[in-house]
Design goal:
The structure holds two protein chains of two kinds. Chain A is globular and about 40 Å long. Chain A has no helices and eleven strands. Chain A starts with a strand and ends with a strand. Chain A is mostly beta strands. By secondary structure, chain B is an all-beta fold. In chain B, the strands form two sheets. In chain B, strands 2, 4, 5, 9, 10 and 11 form a six-stranded mixed sheet that branches. In chain B, strand 6 and strand 7 form a beta hairpin. Chain B starts with a strand and ends with a strand.
């Protein structure tokens, strides 16, 4: 499946590092999402973008900073992370974001992040 | 707030046995979706149910949407080792409200013993 790609697939970073995760969707979708997946919270929504505009931020710490330059690309900038931020970070896209509709989402393979 | 709950959290079955996972929403849903995540993989969309009481089949998988559109189930007949993974249900946030993204259940992790 190459509809949604993510890079890097694996990332190890120290708590003082700055890194970015990249997501690209080739499906012509208008909405994109970042999720955090860990053993404690299987699918935790972090950010939602619709037509490059952020529409939801689920009380995510400021050490995570999203960026959506266009409807095909989504970034997650990371700085001064904590060990508890180690998790699988999944990007997803959907056709649109419409009130009460809930379009199906297509996920990328994820970035496995380890914070040391 | 709105919640989507799944049971059981884990299910271990012998190959050939049937398996069922249940999903319950605290609010009425416009649709319910099911996803499968294989070990080491990412969630993959399986199906969407829209109508009250709807039943859909995909080979050995049967999906149902409750009459009140607040619950759903996924039943697998005669499980195979290829069915291993975590099954998530999801419904739209704020039916009739201002948002359109999905809220996911915590998933049911299925293991199949050959």
């Amino acid at each position: 499946e190459t509809g949604v790609t993510q890079t890097p697939r694996h990332l190890v970073m120290g708590m003082t590092n700055k890194k970015s995760l990249k997501c690209e969707q080739h499906l012509g979708h208008n909405a994109m999402y970042w999720y955090k997946q860990s053993a404690k919270k299987p699918l935790e929504l972090m950010f939602v973008y619709s037509l490059e505009e952020r529409v939801e931020n689920n009380s995510v710490p400021s050490r995570f900073s999203p960026e959506c330059p266009n409807s095909s690309h989504l970034f997650l900038h990371l700085h001064t992370l904590q060990p508890e931020d180690s998790a699988l970070y999944l990007c997803a896209s959907s056709q649109d974001l419409e009130r009460g509709v809930g379009y199906e989402q297509y996920f990328g393979p994820g970035t496995r992040l380890t914070v040391t | 707030g709105q919640q989507v709950m799944q049971i059981p959290q884990y299910q271990h079955v012998q190959e050939g046995e049937d398996f069922t996972t249940y999903c319950n929403s605290s609010t009425t849903l416009s649709n319910i979706q099911w996803y499968k995540q294989r070990p080491g993989g990412h969630p993959v969309f399986l199906i969407q149910l829209v109508k009250s009481g709807e039943v859909k089949k995909q080979k050995r998988l049967t999906f149902q949407f409750g009459e009140a559109k607040k619950n759903s189930s996924l039943h697998i007949t005669a499980t195979q080792t290829t069915d291993v993974g975590t099954y998530f249900c999801a419904g739209p946030v704020g039916y009739g409200g201002s948002q359109g993204n999905l809220i996911f259940g915590k998933g049911t992790k299925l293991s199949v013993k050959p």
